[in-house]
């Protein structure tokens, strides 16, 4: 089963895959603090989802600002489970589901450019680089599989190299985050605010996150 979560306004987009519906709690926990409204679509091919399993998912979604839930499945029991819980449930054949997923994946952007402030409770995730022109406020979370660039104040949480890339980096004009993470290395933000207003970059060196001046090379 795959669950697609998205918010068109903030460019947030994520696909979650589950082989065992009884072990979804840990995955869903990270959405508990999100304030932006999300749409959710469940795609189930040849999977029978009981009304009890679906009810647990629906209850969690209702508590966490997921305002729209739809089901697409080629299994009649799954569709009936959805309809019994008043979820918009659609019976479609296997190929149609695969085609829908292909379209969704084709729209998935690798690099994301976000203009404007990322406010507390908001979350932006990129499958490539993430560039933000604006501030990232405390309580906001930004993440990317590659690098993160914040042309403003980075005061929230930033996670680069989500796919384990230790060469990823996090750069900002004013780097004072609550937490930084690159791949599997985590660092708490400094207690003292930056004294100088110049770009800084966080990178991994010797399994430690190091912050240093961000020097932009120019070609003559």
Report on this model:
The chain has 220 residues and is an alpha/beta fold. It folds into 2 domains: 2-107, 3-Layer(aba) Sandwich (Pyruvate Kinase, Chain: A, domain 1); 112-213, Pectate Lyase C-like. It contains 4 helices and 16 strands. It has helices spanning 25-29, 51-63, 76-84, 94-107; strands at residues 2-7, 12-17, 38-44, 66-73, 88-91, 112-115, 123-126, 130-133, 141-144, 148-154, 157-160, 170-175, 179-182, 185-188, 200-205, 208-213. The chain has a 6-stranded mixed beta sheet with strand order 6-8-10-12-15-16, with no helix packed on it. Strands 2-1-3-4-5 form a 5-stranded mixed beta sheet, with helices on both faces. Helix 3 (76-84) links the parallel strand 4 (66-73) and strand 5 (88-91). The longest helix is centred in the middle third of the chain and has 14 residues, at 94-107. The mean pLDDT is 84.
Short description:
It is built from four helices and 16 strands. It is of the alpha/beta class and 220 residues long. The protein has two domains: 106 residues, Pyruvate Kinase, Chain: A, domain 1, CATH 3.40.1380; 102 residues, 3 Solenoid (Pectate Lyase C-like), CATH 2.160.20.70.
């Amino acid at each position: 089963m795959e669950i697609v979560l998205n918010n068109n306004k903030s460019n947030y987009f994520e696909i979650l895959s589950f082989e065992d519906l009884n072990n979804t709690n840990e995955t869903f926990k990270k959405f508990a603090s999100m304030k932006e409204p999300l749409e959710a679509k469940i795609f189930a091919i040849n999977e029978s989802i009981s009304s009890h399993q679906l009810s647990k998912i629906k209850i969690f979604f209702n508590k966490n600002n997921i305002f729209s839930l739809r089901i697409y499945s080629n299994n009649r029991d799954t569709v009936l489970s959805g309809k019994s819980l008043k979820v918009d449930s659609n019976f479609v054949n296997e190929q149609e589901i695969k085609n829908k997923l292909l379209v969704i994946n084709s729209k998935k952007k690798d690099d994301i450019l976000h203009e404007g402030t990322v406010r507390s409770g908001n979350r932006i995730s990129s499958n490539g680089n993430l560039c933000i022109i604006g501030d990232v406020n405390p309580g906001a979370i930004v993440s990317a599989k590659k690098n993160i660039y914040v042309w403003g104040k980075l005061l929230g949480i930033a996670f680069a190299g989500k796919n384990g890339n230790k060469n990823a980096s996090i750069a900002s004009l004013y780097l004072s985050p609550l937490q930084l993470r690159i791949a599997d290395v985590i660092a708490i933000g400094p207690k003292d605010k930056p004294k100088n207003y110049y770009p800084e970059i966080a990178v991994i060196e010797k399994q430690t996150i190091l912050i240093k001046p961000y020097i932009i090379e120019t070609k003559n």
